[in-house]
Amino acid sequence: MVATLLSVLSAFNRNTNNREDMADSSSSADPKAERTFIAVKPDGVQRGLVGEIVKRFEQRGYKMVAGRMMWASKEMLQKHYADLSSKPFFNGLVEYMNSGPIFAMVWEGKNVVKMGRMMLGETNPTNSLPGTIRGDYCIDVGRNICHGSDAVDSANAEIALWFGSDVQEYTLASKPWVYE
Ligand code: RTP
Ligand code: MG
Predict the structure, then answer these.
(1) pTM summary value
(2) Which ligand 1 atom minimizes the distance to the CA of 122?
(3) In terms of DSSP H, where are the helices of the chain?
(4) pLDDT tens, residue by residue, 102-157
(5) Mind telling me the catalytic residues?
């Protein structure tokens, strides 16, 4: 009797966890297919940190489905950061992001939007823990070396803005070694 009860409880737990996994991820049928827009900013490019940032996402197990060096126009950057247009730092932010090429990417995988933000650290590097990208490689908020989408909806909008449909669909050979 006790054993039956325990097995019912554990099945309920498994189902609840599965639902949470799905809710945390994109609305896509495959939760492992969530995507985020990550961009090494001009200071990150100039400081030779593209490889380091790519390496961290690769080694975590995420899949790069788009990647390109771009020198974004101010108009493009104003669109990208439109929700910050009323902020006093907005013009400076656009100048900074337009000061050189960026390395723009799309990464795919389970919970990659939320995990990408955790890997980046806080907006202000002063508050970013060592071990995060910003916590390891930068100091000032206006030179925080890397962008990451802050939600699934904004990620999808940013991917459409920067890459349109120019995103590669493929299966990474390591998939069964990364996901159970
Ligand atoms: P991002 O979009 O670049 O990934 O950065 P975030 O989400 O962590 O922060 P967000 O609020 O979106 O701000 C965008 C970028 O604006 C600059 N910033 N400067 N001077 C300031 O107080 C200030 N606050 C934000 C940073 O470069 C930040 O990453
Ligand atoms: Mg942001």
Answers:
(1) 0.86
(2) 8
(3) 2-24, 42-46, 50-60, 74-80, 90-97, 112-120, 133-137, 152-163, 175-178
(4) 999 999 999 999 999 999 999 999 999 999 999 999 999 999 999 999 999 999 99
(5) 147
